[in-house]
Design goal:
34% strand; Phage tail protein beta-alpha-beta fold; Jelly Rolls; 13-stranded mixed beta sheet
Length: 304
Amino acid sequence: MLDDKKDDIFLSRWINGELSEEELREFQSHPEYKHYTKIMAGADALNLKEYDVEKELAALKSKQRNEPIKKAGSIVKLWPYFAAAASIAIILGLFLFNSGESFSTTYGEQLTVTLPDGSEMILNAKSNAIFDKKKWDDNRLVNLDGEAYFKVKKGSTFTVATKNGDVTVLGTQFNVQSQNAFFEVRCFEGKVSVLNKNHKEILTAGKAYRNLENNIPEQWTFTTQQPSWLSNTSSFRSTPIKYVFKELEEQYDLKIKSPSIDLETMYTGTFPNNDQEVALKTVFSTLGITYSLSQDGKTVVLEK
């Protein structure tokens, strides 16, 4: 475990992005790192839908007032730095303890999850999903942060909720990608309803919808039978290269430094998710960018 006298302050610094590069790398090699990233990523993926934060916090504070307080000194010292993050962690902890199921993937990883009704969810790299198993029969809801492919059994309404928009179906196969301000949905079978910033669209098989950074949404048709990433290939259609670089980072656990590169440059193409050298050469040669790797192989420096 982390040092009990320092772990709370250390974690608050990590959440607030205040660790040095050396501290962060050391923490990332710690066996508990994945556990903490899963908790915080899960809090983001939860998106607080179907959960009354104020009500739960009020109940928790009421309970604390009626019980003996332990180690109050350390809590008081930490509160100014850790209040918001602690609230999220508490709510997430209560949710998962009561009825939640949480799943996450790390760099270059895929994970197949069988949902309570037999539907299937496949998570792409660096993605997180949470659902309420006890309420599943009445409310088939998955909170997603990242990218996932769904094969949904016919039944009641099935909803994938993200911070960028919601996708609702009855029974179908579709792919959802929601990362930062990137939101894309592809329907491979049946029909899906997409709600994005109060804008609703119905997609049938072979139709795709995308909204980048809350700009004008776009739609197009495609002929593939499943997402390319299920076959270990990342593909892009007229996508700003900052999202392509982000995908490279998530597939290969890299940090890409691009101080002189126009990150809004559009990219159409693919790269393999199981061969880093080929992936880097494919993307950067297409863009006419020179790159070099750091000595530890974890940082890519770009030059135009």
